[in-house]
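Hi P.,

Sorry for the delay on this. The queue was packed all week, but I finally got your sequence through. Input first:
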Amino acid sequence: MNILSRQGEALYSHNTENLRYALEQAIISGFDLSGASITQADLRNANLDGAILGNAFFSEVDFSGANMSECALDNAVFINCKFYDTCFAESSLRNAEFNNCNYGDTDFAYTCLDGIKVKTDRLSYFNFNSAESLSKASFVWRGKNIPMSTSPAIYQNAQDSMMVFDSHILCNGKIFKCKKVFS
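Then the structure:
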């Protein structure tokens, strides 16, 4: 199994056909996997604790139940990935992008989320309240940019969904600009 960079160069090779096992072995061995490109992979329940994956590209990867604590994921790009019960505690995700990903009970405790961009066409529940830092971030809803420097408040009932950002409200698919009330 080869773990390749975006340019197709081998970052790590292991005598297995199991990508999760190869990644775990690379991390245990201290390999820098920055720039890795991983697509259509099942990494459910993987232990990626401490991984160095800056500038990595992930597309259609299921990280459900994965331990991604203390990871270096600055400038990483995640497209159509699943993060159900995933732990990012104490990781660095500066300037990372999450494009049309799914979340549920995702742990961002003490995580650096400065400059992240969350792009989506549907409301997803993500909780950044326990993040260590969240500045110069943005939420892109159907191509429209909403600045974000605090975690949005999310309200849902059977008919309606609403996300309250620093100076915008996203309610039932419509964006409303409002004055910042809290400082």
